[in-house]
Structures are given as structure tokens and as C-alpha cells.
Design brief:
heterodimer, A: 108 residues, mainly alpha, B: 239 residues
């Protein structure tokens, strides 16, 4: 198998598996009335998952070496503070991201 | 039937998607540049970005392709890295079905950040919520695929480094968490997410923690179902 077709096969496999994973909950719970337990989970899980996704984004941050995670934690806290005050995600995200990019270049 | 303002619907979708679109163009670009470096074409890149549409998997995929990892091994790796998506669809079936023939599209165009957008949006009454969902999905998906295409074509010729712009995704999840914190008086699900995330990260390490952590959150939520339902009802009465 040459490089081009090996690449195509890998791309096709990864895409199909990912699409299948995404379709699973819709296949399982997509028709008819939701069981109460599923409805409850659908309502509560997003609130647990968002904080877990913050941890997921920062999973490769090292707190013992390098910059000790100060830019990551500092900018995340700043973002939370801005969002709390401004209640507008665009400036909160923009300011904290730009500051993060500055910090990792020039300070740490 | 209520009248919707279609321009406002689009601008609301654009506003809520913009930070993610920037991050997607840049991270998508990185993926494209990696693919080009590894010797793959724009066709591979665009197909991967459009149909896989998963940052963590695509970035992990390139070095595995360089080592000519077997197809079954690639399938297993995809399953492990992307299994968290299984949880995202729960509760979205009714909402996505309103897209009609685009229902399957909404299902496959559903990465972490779009899930975040969909979990957080509350619109003014003249914004069509279904059209806003569709526009947001399309805009983010376009940004991701377009970023990949640019990356594979331009590659390393970019004059400035945009390292760190992917922090925008972290910042978006922080904003959503802050909104949820103010919106819901019951903070227990968020504590569950923090504790299960940190414990699983410390025990299992950065590469393997996300799925176990989501499963733990799910189990704890289910165990606490009757208590949580009581708390939620009490809250609803207070409002």
C-alpha cells in the first residue's frame, strides 16, 4: 500500500470511528420519550463536564517545572473574573488569551 | 408563530462562535502543517478535518501515521481518545431533530467547543434558536476545515507564531462555567466535575483521564439522583 492510500485509509478509519461514537447517544436515545434517568443526566452532565473540560485543556500544564502553570492558572482566573464582571464572553476570552500569549513569550 | 430576525440570528451565532473560530483556524492550521510535514496532501487534510473534526485525535494521528501504525490500532486509538463524545449527545436529540434533513450533520459536527456553545446559549426572543445552532455549527466547522487547508498549503511559511492561541478554548470553557455558576444555585454537579477531573488526572495521567473522569461524574450524578432532583425542585420553587 503506498503512502497516499495508507493515509486515505487512516483518515477514513479515524473519521468513521469518531462519527460512530458521536452517533451512539442519538441511536440509543434518539427515538421516543427519554427515560427519566437519561433526561436527568442530559440536564446535569453539562454542568459537570464544562469544569472537567477546563482541566482537559490544561492537562499538559506542568506545575513543578518551567513556569509552574502560572500563565495558565493566572489567565484562567482573570478570564473568570472578567466574565463575572462584564458578562460578555468575547472580551473575557480575547483579553485572557492575548495576555496568555504575551506571558508565554516575554515573561515566562 | 413568532417572527424571527434573521440578521440578528446570524450575528448572534457569529458572536458566540467567533472566539472558537479564531482558535480553530490556528489549531486546524497546525494540524495541516503537521500533515504536510509528514508528507500527506491537502485531500487527506481536508477529509480528516471535515469528517473527524476532533482536535485531539487529529493532532495525535499524525505521528502515528508517520510510524505507519496499523489500521486496527488507529481505530482503537480513536475510540480511546474520542470516547468522551458519547456523552455529549445525551439530551440533544430533540433539539438536533428540529434541523430536519441536517439532523445527521449536527451529530457529526459536534466537538468539545461546539458542545460548549450549545450548552451555554440563551438567546433573545427574536433569535431563531435552531438557525442559530445551525449557523454556529457551520461557522466553527468551516473555520476548522479551512484552517487545516491553509496549514497544509502554506505550512511553515507563516511569518508570526500564534502559539498559545488555543488558550481561547480554555477561556471559553471558563466563561461557560462562570455563567453556569451564576445561573444555577445548585453547584454540586460542578464540584463533581472538578473532583472527578482532578483525581482522575492525578491517578491516570494526562493521556487517559478524560473518559474515566466523565464516567465517574456520570455514576456519582446517578447515585445522587433523588437528592439532586429534590434540590432542583426546591430551587425552582424559590424563583
Amino acid at each position: 500500500m503506498n503512502e497516499f492510500w495508507y493515509g486515505m485509509a487512516v483518515v477514513a478509519v479515524c473519521a468513521s470511528v469518531t462519527m460512530l461514537i458521536r452517533a451512539l447517544p442519538f441511536i440509543a436515545f434518539g427515538s421516543g420519550k427519554l427515560p427519566p434517568a437519561v433526561e436527568y443526566v442530559g440536564k446535569m452532565l453539562p454542568r459537570a463536564v464544562m469544569v472537567t473540560l477546563i482541566i482537559f485543556c490544561l492537562r499538559n500544564t506542568s506545575f513543578t517545572t518551567g513556569s509552574h502553570g502560572i500563565p495558565e492558572i493566572g489567565c484562567a482566573v482573570l478570564c473568570a473574573f472578567l466574565q463575572r464582571k462584564l458578562k460578555n464572553a468575547i472580551p473575557s476570552i480575547a483579553i485572557s488569551t492575548v495576555l496568555y500569549m504575551v506571558l508565554i513569550r516575554f515573561v515566562f | 408563530m413568532q417572527g424571527y430576525d434573521y440578521r440578528k440570528t446570524f450575528s448572534t451565532a457569529l458572536k458566540q462562535s467567533a472566539p472558537i473560530m479564531f482558535a480553530y483556524i490556528v489549531v486546524g492550521f497546525t494540524f495541516g502543517a503537521m500533515m504536510s510535514e509528514a508528507g500527506y496532501t491537502w485531500i487527506h487534510t481536508v477529509i480528516a478535518s471535515f469528517f473527524t473534526y476532533s482536535g485531539s485525535m487529529q493532532i495525535a494521528m499524525v505521528p502515528m501515521m508517520v510510524y505507519h501504525t496499523s489500521l486496527p490500532a488507529m481505530a482503537v486509538a480513536t475510540l480511546l481518545i474520542n470516547s468522551r463524545y458519547m456523552f455529549y449527545g445525551i439530551g440533544f436529540a430533540e433539539r438536533f431533530k428540529r434541523q430536519g434533513i441536517l439532523y445527521p450533520y449536527m451529530i457529526i459536527a459536534f466537538p468539545d467547543e461546539v458542545y460548549g456553545i450549545f450548552c451555554s446559549n440563551k438567546h433573545p426572543s427574536d433569535v431563531d434558536p435552531d438557525k442559530c445552532d445551525l449557523w454556529s455549527a457551520l461557522l466553527c466547522h468551516f473555520a476548522w476545515t479551512f484552517g487545516g487547508l491553509l496549514g497544509v498549503l502554506i505550512g511553515d511559511n507563516l511569518p508570526i507564531s500564534l502559539e498559545g492561541i488555543d488558550f481561547a478554548a480554555t477561556a471559553m470553557f471558563v466563561c461557560i462555567t462562570v455563567n453556569q455558576w451564576t445561573e444555577y444555585k445548585n453547584h454540586i454537579p460542578m464540584y463533581i466535575g472538578v473532583v472527578s477531573g482532578i483525581v482522575c488526572l492525578l491517578v491516570l495521567g494526562p493521556d487517559n483521564f478524560i473518559l474515566p473522569s466523565l464516567i465517574v461524574s456520570l455514576i456519582v450524578l446517578l447515585i445522587m439522583k433523588s437528592r439532586m432532583t429534590a434540590i432542583e425542585e426546591k430551587e425552582a420553587h424559590h424563583e
